[in-house]
Amino acid sequence: MVRLAAAGAAAGLVVAAIAVPAVGGAGLGFVTAAGEVDLKPLDLAEPPPAEVTIVRDAKGGEIARFYEEFREVVGFGEIAATMKTAIVAIEDFRFYEHGAIDVEGTLRALATNLQSGKVSQGGSSITQQYVKQVLLNSADTQAERNAAVEASYARKLNELRYAMGIEKKYTKDEILAKYLNIAYFGASAYGVEAAAKRFFGVSAADLTLPQAATLAGAVQDPNATDPNLGKEHRERLLNRRNVVLDRMAELGKITAAEAAKAKAAKLGYKATRIPGGCESSKYPYFCLYVRHEILSNPDFGRTAKARLTMLNRGGLTITTTLDPAMQAAADKAIKKYVHPSDAPVAAQALIKPGTGAIKAMAASRRYGTSAARNEISYNVVANTAHGGGIGFQPGSTFKTFTLITALQQGMKLDDGLAAGAGYRAPAYATFKTCKGQNVGDPSHTVTNDEGSPGWKTLRTGTWDSVNTFFMELEERVGLCETVKTAKSLGIRRADGKKLQEYETFTLGINESDPVTVAAAYAAVAARGEYCAPLAITQITDRDGRTTRYRPKCRQALDPAIADATAEVLSGVFTEGTMSGVGGLGRDAAGKTGTTDDYASAWFAGFTPDLAAAVSLGDPRGSQQYKLTGVTIGGRYYGAVQGASIPGPIWRDTMSAALRDVPATPFTAIDTSRFEGCSDSCRPAKKPADDEATPEVTLTPEDILE
Fold this sequence. Notes:
Beta-lactam/transpept-like; alpha+beta; glycosyltransferase; carboxypeptidase; PBP_transglycosylase
């Protein structure tokens, strides 16, 4: 109450001073302002200042920082005593003696202002400066920001009312701590802790006398003394530091000898790199995924603006699913086969079955905007919703969805079809989209990049990845049914557009991303339980409140169907396209993906404990820059297939990532349901490739349809 009484007395002096007629005709404005004075304490809304959000991996290591203002709030006891002494000495040396305002300083400023006819001198106490910073930081519009700093008596009086409320609400130590945490010191450092780290590479608790004096001097005009802006700015900052040291000696806070010694010290500005942003992250692609997940997902805020504010100002701690050891395995494997300087880029995502947890996201190119360093400026591992591009065609990895559809319709593992050397749709109406539209071009012949024609079962057709077999199979089970199976496993186009439903759907014509494909294969590993990709497990706010985020899962497949699919895909390693690459020495299943004319190459696979998908393509345009006659990773390839580079990357990654994970076997298939043949195991007669195919005339309406 003593401080409030003093503030009231001071307020009377201020009003009296304002009411004095001024030189130059300015008195009228002052009198008008005085008439509006109602100096009662006002409660100031104090939204917390913007703080740094820290993103951590599953083990607690820091991945990245997001912020609008680089600030770390610390307590009064976490600030060096010399820092507190320095700031009080230079900014408000009677801070602990006066109330909401410094009467002497205010009257001195008023006298100067009355002579000039305008507000040209401040005289604000630390409390008033804190109020000003709160108003400035909480402003949403430019008009509000202008009002917070305008040179007017109305603003100063309003500031005083709030200051009186602050003095009533907090102790002097609390006010000083709040001011030091909100003040801007220059060099993009907000608050004393961030400034101590940015300027000198130390915490606020460890500031020395010359360092503290430097920061205390910077707050008066942080832009003019910003050491990051060049030599002249640093010289101004050094001069300002010495002013603070002289003032501290004048007030008896330090001795003249201590001041002289501190003034002899160099500025010592270290320009410590501000941590934050995905470009500076060790895991930039995962960082991008997390950032876009928060900005686009309503789970993290009702509006896009609210989500951005929360991320950049909230002082959150975001715990993620990333496993550093698995990430290191993915990085090492990619580096072994694809160089950062190569034109094609390899990308890989690792996902834990049954949770959707993304354990790693890796790519061969560095993330950034430098063309000279061959950097890539988007998230090549993810879809556009998570900062990615349009993706690459996944090729034969999509044959798995046709296989699953066949099993769902009652086919057994030894059921088969006769596959020719080429496939042409018998008629335009052979395939129907899920909207009932006819598709299928009988003039286009699908050929085999891998495998040979002949009688193929679900097993052998998959192992050898025979295109014509899967065209026949999709014709039998239905295009729409195959599309529905893919959708049930989370398959979406990387660019966010609708899936293209053409007869070649089974051959992987829809551009995809590794995260999406890995999540689909993880569902098979989890016996049919699809879980949406998950990157964030919990968020702790600045007040210590924690919100946990659980996997979003659903049963997409009959577990027995998933088991039978895994049984077939496991043969890809022992009997099929990956037999020359080798397996993991534990139960594993997967599928190579090689697109038409070698535009891109993939491998997607899983164990019961981990799933992964690897893509390889040229971001300049995979259809134009194909994977033929290329040198990748220092090795020449006439043509790149799924087993050429993506398969070995997958194998090496999974071997290292699962090194300390006990092997889990696949669930044995229901032999009574899937073994043997549902019809006859004998090949059905298939028309020879050179036999006439009925001619179909396509009208313009048909083509548009």
